[in-house]
């Protein structure tokens, strides 16, 4: 089935839309708090569609992601009991917060860098940083560095790879999509306990 190639074509149309930077900004902000769709899913095709805007898009994603992280921090800091904790409980994510707290205790601020740069769910750590009253300025600075490195790397690779990379991506998009979906389901089944 060629579901992912159709989705890719749709995403490329959105990436060329005149409001694409607004959508990227909103996605970047929300992804740092609760949204499950990674910023890279929109950033990469936008960069492929308009390579001259690669650094602008990466900067936009970085700034709005860190602004979202600040909001996530505020939720954890000021609204844990009335809003965040009941939501976490309803989703069954108490264990993930416990793991985040343990990681903070063991690695401190490095957890923010790791979560901001890797596919580890950054949102869990932004809210937990607020819950634990982590020093705010270091939180922002490390988030800027980690998110910036990630998004500028994605944009840089897309700009550098250009048409050749897009051709390879189109050729293998369905295989990549199905493998990613299977890996995500397996990871979910293994980690849900």
- Low confidence ranges: none
What's the total count of β strands? Answer: 0
Question: How many H/I helices?
Answer: 9
Percent range of helical residues: over 70%
Number of domains: 1
* Major sheet description: none
What is the radius of gyration?
17 Å
Round the mean pLDDT to the nearest integer and report it.
86
> What overall form do the CA principal axes indicate?
globular
Tell me the series of helices and strands, N- to C-terminal: HHHHHHHHH
Structural class: mainly alpha
In whole angstroms, the N-to-C terminal distance is: 32 Å
Question: In percent terms, what proportion of residues is strand?
Answer: under 5%
InterPro entries: DedA_domain, VTT_dom
Keywords: Membrane, Transmembrane, Transmembrane helix
Domain VTT: 53-157
Transmembrane segments: 54-80, 100-118, 124-149, 169-191
Description:
By secondary structure, this protein is mainly α. It has one domain (3-191). It is 83% helix and 0% strand. It contains nine helices and no strands. The two termini are 32 Å apart. Keywords: Membrane, Transmembrane, Transmembrane helix.
Describe the structure using short key phrases.
VTT_dom, 193 residues, transmembrane helix, mainly alpha, globular, DedA_domain, membrane, 9 helices
In short:
The protein has nine helices and no strands.
């Amino acid at each position: 089935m060629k579901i992912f190639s159709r989705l890719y074509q749709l995403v490329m149309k959105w990436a060329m839309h005149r409001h694409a930077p607004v959508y990227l900004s909103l996605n970047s902000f929300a992804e740092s708090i609760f949204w499950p769709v990674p910023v890279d899913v929109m950033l990469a095709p936008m960069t492929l569609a308009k390579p001259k805007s690669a650094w602008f898009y990466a900067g936009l994603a970085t700034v709005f992601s860190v602004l979202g992280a600040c909001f996530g921090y505020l939720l954890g800091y000021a609204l844990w009991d009335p809003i965040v904790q009941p939501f976490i409980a309803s989703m069954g994510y108490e264990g993930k917060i416990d793991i985040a707290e343990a990681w903070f205790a063991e690695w401190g601020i490095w957890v923010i860098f790791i979560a901001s740069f890797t596919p580890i769910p950054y949102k869990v750590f932004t809210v937990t940083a607020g819950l634990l009253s982590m020093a705010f300025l270091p939180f922002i600075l490390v988030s800027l560095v980690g998110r910036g490195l990630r998004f500028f790397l994605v944009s840089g690779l897309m700009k550098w790879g250009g048409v050749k990379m897009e051709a390879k991506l189109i050729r293998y998009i369905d295989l990549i999509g199905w493998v990613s979906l299977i890996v995500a389901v397996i990871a979910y089944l293994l980690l849900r306990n």
